[in-house]
Amino acid sequence: MKKRVLLLSALALGLSTLSFAQAPASIKKGLKITLLPKNINNPYNVIETSGGLEAAKEIGATAKVVGPSDAGASSQVSYINTAIAQRQDALILAANDANALLPYLNRAKQAGVKIVTMDSDTAVSGRTLFINQANSEGIGRAQVQLLGKLINYKGDIAVLSATPNATNQNTWIKWMQEELKLPKYKDMKLVKIAYGNDDDQKSFTEMQGLIQAYPNLKGVISPTTVGISAGARYLSTSPSKGKVALTGLGTPNQMRAFVKDGTVTAFQLWNPADVGYLATYAAGALASGMITGKQGETFMAGKLGKYTVGKNGEVVLGPPYTFDKANIDKFDF
Amino acid sequence: MNRFKGLLGWEFSLIVLVGAALLIGGLLSPDFLTGSNLSFLTANFSEVALMSLSMTLLIIVGEIDLSVASILGLCSAVIGVLFAAGVPMPLALPAAFVTGGLAGLFNGLLVTRLGLPSLAVTIGTLALYRGLAYVLLGDRAIAEFPAFYTNLGFGNVPGTLIPLPMALFAVLAILTVIVLHATPFGRALYAIGANGVAARFAGLQVERVKLSLFVLSGLMAALASAVYTFRFASARADNASGFELSVIAAVLLGGVSIFGGRGSVVGTVAAVFLIGIINGALTILDVSNEILTIVTGLLLIGSVLLPNLLTHFRTYQQRRRIQGDSVIQ
Fold first, then answer.
1. Of B37, B141, B154, the CB nearest to A99
2. Would you say residue B6 lies in a domain?
3. Which of B130, B140, B286, B290 best probes binding to A when mutated, by most A CB atoms within 10 angstroms?
4. Mapping DSSP to helix (H, G, I), strand (E, B) and coil, where does residue A221 land?
5. How far does the signal peptide extend, from start to end residue (chain A) (predicted)?
6. Does A124 touch chain B (CB under 8 A)?
7. Best of A97, A110, A113 to disrupt the B interface by mutation (most B CBs within 10 Å)?
8. Which of A154, A168, A253, B270 has its CA 20 to 30 A from that of B71?
């Protein structure tokens, strides 16, 4: 009898050490998480951190949002120190400066605080994970996919970009052209890439020029918030309203009126709440030891599903979010 | 002599308040009175502390320098631009000091040669120097300085939790105390601040003294710029923007009269610590940034108001006593 108990306990001990070696299967309850946006009163940041707080509730963590009222380079530093002093399990931040925070983030890491950036990254050494709202390929392809749907995959299309040497714009346009090579777009022709120089007036007149120069123009993609709103303003009072589809990257507050009056059916950007939500799940998984930030590791992020850690600890939220009449009133930024 | 006693009372109250702030912070948050937190907290106001020393001297002679934080930004930009261009740090740093000294000299010349009020002059140069910083650096941030230099800004005195910049501050604060309270030059500052015309008649080189203090203010801002740039490993044109208000708040709260002629370094140092500790405690208690700014503002108003109210109260009492005496007679 005694022997059996001994054997059983030995077995139990063996099992427990075995399970110790394995990564825990779920996020620990009662984690302490600090969300540190760039600036605390910015509506975009408020939505972003509200997503983080929602996720924190789901994983049973105590989360709080702190931050400076200005977006100065060093104004986040005292909050990083506070996270150390308060022995937080994780710190999620959108960095105001990629380098100014590094020594302090390293000190936080040494003190055992897990660091996740979202929105605006630091140098790779400053954090374990970076939650990227979207990658260039995803943005470029999704814009063409959306416009294709809007114009029934037929007709001339144009791009109204920012400046000819804007790196991000050009990368997106390159991916748009890749997407257009697919067979389903065989009846769509990219006739012109115009540049509004991220200037309201110039974008407005470029939009006017596109519509006058190409009578068969069916759609315009403007992957810049300045371009799309100036383009929409021109379109809203022109006879082409409702005939030429305009889409691109814009913010709900900028585009609301044009969506409501029928000038624009749908446009894209990411959902900031999802960025914060994903970041909090990632921080939870990191602080529970489920992941370490190595490429290829996976974790579940509640309603958003499964995510994989990419190169340099980057986690991409996914394709951009599409705003239309049905959902635009849920956003204020 | 009486006046001096009143001032000592003010400084004593400040030191008591520093103790109280530490105690209350510790009671409200278990994470507050830890060595590493206090170490960070003091490092976090080292630039303000450094600049408050020269500002104390300037305000005592009845002048002010609102451009210090802009000079800091400009010097930081100079360090960044030169370093990015491949100039070694032992040459870039002196260049920043020359820049700071010249910026201070320009302020001083406008005030002493043209007789312009320093408040107006330095509001102008506040914008001018910040603008020059942007011309030099734009939106760029220069980082990745050699570890040796960033450690100077970020590190502690070996074997202790005392931040290196605060050790530097301690040395300079002691020097300032000696100069201000134990040399003829220091006495001259009070005389000039109390009555510039009388001081001139007494043979003091009023303009020259003021000019040298503006240059000192620029040099101190350059020193603070080196601390800031290395502490954050980041040279940016907007470095330390808004810090001039913290510096002036500390000096006035420290009991230095905005009208000149009165004040001490000890008061300034106590006030720097008081503001820094209150800010640090409120931050660790997760009090929002807006409240933090409001508290600093109230402290500043209080520090200007309270001494004035006390003076009024004292004269009122004196008058009553005199009236009472005359009635008895």
1. B141
2. no
3. B286
4. strand
5. 1-21
6. no
7. A97
8. B270
CATH number at residue B199: 1.10.3470
Residue A37 lies in a domain: yes
Q: Is B139 exposed, middle or buried (0-12, 13-18, 19+ CB in 10 A)?
A: exposed
Instruction: Say if the Cβ atoms of B239 and A69 lie within 8 Å.
Output: no
Judge: A97–B286 Cβ closer than 8 Å, yes or no: no
**Residue A171 belongs to domain spanning:** 136-269
Q: Which residue in chain B is spatially nearest to A101 when comparing CA positions?
A: B232
The answer to whether residue B320 sits within a structural domain is no
Assign residue A80 the CATH number of its domain.
Answer: 3.40.50.2300
Does residue A36 contact residue A92 with C-beta atoms inside 8 Å? yes
For residue B97, the number of C-alpha atoms closer than 13 Å in the C-beta half-sphere is 9
Gap between the Cα atoms of B283 and B168, Å rounded: 25
Q: Does A33 touch chain B (CB under 8 A)?
A: no
Residues 34-73 of B with CB under 8 A from A: 34, 36-37, 40-41, 44
- Degrees to nearest 5, angle at CA A311 with A275 and A292: 75
Predicted-assembly ipTM surpassing the 0.90 threshold = no
- Same-domain check for residues A260 and A171: yes
Kindly list the distances between the CA atom of residue B206 and the CA atoms of A219, B77, B112, B116, B182, in Å, as whole numbers in the listed order: 74, 33, 9, 15, 19
- How close does chain A come to B163, measured CA to CA in Å? 14
Q: B26 vs chain A: nearest CA distance in angstroms?
A: 12
- Tell me the pTM: 0.78
A287 is written with which tokens? 């602080």
Q: pLDDT tens digits, chain A, 333 residues: what are they?
A: 455 655 555 555 555 444 445 667 789 999 999 999 988 877 888 899 999 999 999 999 999 999 988 777 678 998 999 999 999 999 999 988 878 888 899 999 999 999 999 988 898 999 999 999 888 899 999 999 999 999 999 999 999 998 888 788 889 999 999 999 999 999 999 999 999 988 899 999 999 999 999 999 999 999 999 999 999 999 999 999 999 999 999 999 999 999 999 999 999 999 999 999 999 999 999 999 999 999 999 999 999 999 999 999 999 999 899 999 999 999 888
Question: Does residue A221 share a domain with residue A148?
Answer: yes
- Whether residues B289 and A81 touch (CB distance < 8 A) is answered with no
Look up tokens 């820049």; give the residue.
B99
In residues, how long is chain B? 329
Interface residue B144 vs chain A (CB under 8 A): yes
Could you tell me which residues come within 8 angstroms of residue B13 by beta carbon, excluding any fewer than 6 positions away?
A: none
How far apart, in whole angstroms, are the C-alpha atoms of residue B42 and residue B162? 8
String of b and e for B94-127 (b: at least 16 CB within 10 Å)? ebbbebbbebbbbbbbbbbeeeeebeebbeebbe
How many domains does one find in chain A?
2
- Smallest Cβ distance to A97: which of B234, B242, B284? B234
Number of domains in chain B: 1
| Shortest Cα–Cα distance, A82 to chain B (Å) | 5
Q: B130 and chain A: CB distance < 8 Å anywhere?
A: no
Inter-CA distances, B296 with B9, B249, B256, B288, Å: 22, 8, 17, 13
Q: Is there a single domain that holds both residue A149 and residue A265? A: yes
Cβ-defined contact of A78 to B31 (cutoff 8 Å): no
